[in-house]
Design goal:
There is one protein chain. With 156 residues, the protein is of the alpha+beta class. The chain has four helices and four strands, in the order βαβααβαβ. A four-stranded mixed beta sheet has the order 1-2-4-3.
Length: 156
């Protein structure tokens, strides 16, 4: 996350960032027991740009549709995507759309829990205060804004 410009709420790497990811081969699908493809982050451009000419142009939607078709042909049974409430601060900070984006593509909410990076409100007090203020202004319960929303699309 160094140089990322702040907390990237969409990217959790269980083993840490992987610099050589593009040089790695996916395992053979037959070797994978849980056929769930997990999307932690899907962005067009960078949240660090003042203006991003690629956002709100349907590129993300087309990327997900292509991913869905690819996953179906490769034997994946479902796709899960991490998301958050539809709040401007999330979009501005990460460049990622909220759960409504995923719902429009056929995904459904299957789990919600406090995101690990947001468990301790004292670590990001200004960010969490902004989340809560924006949530209140549009009728979302403030106690839910730190939640990671897991969206799922069944492919089978």
């Amino acid at each position: 996350m160094e140089g990322a410009g702040g907390p990237c709420l969409q990217q959790d790497y269980p083993a840490g960032p992987v610099d050589d990811f593009v040089d790695s081969d996916f395992p053979d699908p037959a070797q994978i027991e849980d056929k769930t493809l997990v999307v932690h982050c899907l962005m067009t451009g960078s949240a660090l740009q003042e203006e991003n000419p690629y956002q709100r142009k349907g590129i993300g939607r087309r990327m997900v549709k292509a991913l869905i078709e690819w996953a179906k042909t490769k034997g994946w049974e479902r796709i899960e995507a991490d998301s958050f409430e539809d709040l401007p601060v999330i979009y501005e900070g990460t460049g990622s759309a909220g759960h409504t984006f995923w719902e429009r593509l056929g995904f459904r909410l299957v789990d919600r829990h406090v995101h690990p990076a947001l468990e301790d409100p004292s670590k990001l007090p200004e960010f969490i205060a902004t989340l809560e203020e924006q949530a209140k202004s549009i009728g979302i319960p403030p106690e839910t804004v730190r939640d990671r929303l897991v969206m799922r699309l069944d492919l089978t």
